[in-house]
Every structure is written in structure tokens, then in C-alpha cells.
Amino acid sequence: QVTLRESGPALVKATQTLTLACxxxxxxxxxxxxxxxxxxxxxxxxxxxxxRIDWDExxxxxxxxKTRLTISKDTSGNQVVLTMTNMDPVDTAMxxxxxxxxxxxxxxxxxxxxxxxxxxS
Amino acid sequence: xxxxxxxxxxxxxxxxxxxxxxxxASSDVAVHNYVSWYQQHPGKAPKLIIYDxxxxxxxxxxxxSGSESGxxxxxxxxxxQADDEADYFCCSFAGGSxxxxxxxxxxxxx
Lengths: 121, 110
Hints:
Largest interface: A-B, 25 and 27 residues
Number of helices of chain A: 0
Oligomer: heterodimer
Radius of gyration of chain B: 13 Å
Structural class of chain B: mainly beta
């Protein structure tokens, strides 16, 4: 069974750096075609794609947030970490990680339950 | 990458059909056959209901269908049911191997 679970601080202060972890099971990010993305959703608003890391360790970022984001795999192999610098209250959102299996589809077939991050001023 | 354009809301009565559009640009919807649709109930994570423009994952009823014409993708839900009331988001592969979501559409079942 494939699962993803997000974790991180529920509250951060403006200007701080946010670090979120996506811990997954049921697949290996080293397997050809596997990709994991971070996607966020401010309360009552739309989904926004943030970043993706692929099985070959290529990284892709939202052009509007590129300078603030870093996505990486941790050495354990079952975790993807997202860091976002210089947090602002507008970054308050539910943050999701989700999986793509490229080759089978190009779509997010499995999502985590999300982790809510509030940025205080 | 600008968000894909969706109507903010649509509505229909039980048993009717509704269609939600998703309009992109020359660098996303019009170019790639990688448009997907997600259903999101309040307080829940999004759920994949259509991938690669018109394919349904296992377990998704055939009342849900997808299509594409030019730079506009569409999701049609036929035989509306009360549980279809939710937010719907489209997503497309975009330039530079990035991705872009639509602004979301709230479906109300009258």
C-alpha cells in the first residue's frame, strides 16, 4: 500500500525558514518514473504546485517561488524534504505531498493528508 | 506559469450533467496530453478522477469523463449525485517540466 505523510511545524514566524518532510512507503523514489511533488492550498483557495523531485534526482520549481524553495531526498530514501525561506503570512496554507508514476500516467495518484502551516507576523 | 482558468462555480440538479472547463496556454494544455482532474471534498485531500485528459483511474465511476480541444480541457459529470458536490481542480504539465493547477470550480448539486 502506497502512503505519503507530511510533517513539519504548524506555526512559523515571518522571515523564518520552513522545513517540511514527506515520509512515504510502498514505493521507492529510486525506481524509474517515480516523482514526488509538493503542492499547497491557502484556506479557501486553489491548489498551487511548488516543486517536484524525480527518480533521477532532477528538481523542478515553480517559477514564482524558485528562489525560496529547495526540494531534496534524504539519505534514508523514503523521505522528501522541502525548505521554503523567508516565510510570510501569505504562505499560510495546507501543504501536501503527492506522487506521480511517470510512464503509467502523468497525474498525482496518491496524496498525503496534508499539514497545515500558519505564518504569524 | 499562470494558473489555468476554470469557472468559479457550476451547479446542476441530481441526474443532470455538468461540464467544467479548464483553459490554458500554448505551453501547457494545448501542447501536452497530461491534463488531470481532482475532486476535493471539504477538509479532505484531493482525489484523482481523470488523468492524461480522458482516462479514469480504477474505481472512478464512468459518470466522470474528460476531453480536450485546443487549449481547453473539460470535465463532464453525468447523472449528478449529491456526493459529487465538491471542488474540482484541473492540472497540466507545463513548460520546463513544471506543472500548473487551475483556480478550482465549486460544484453545487441543487
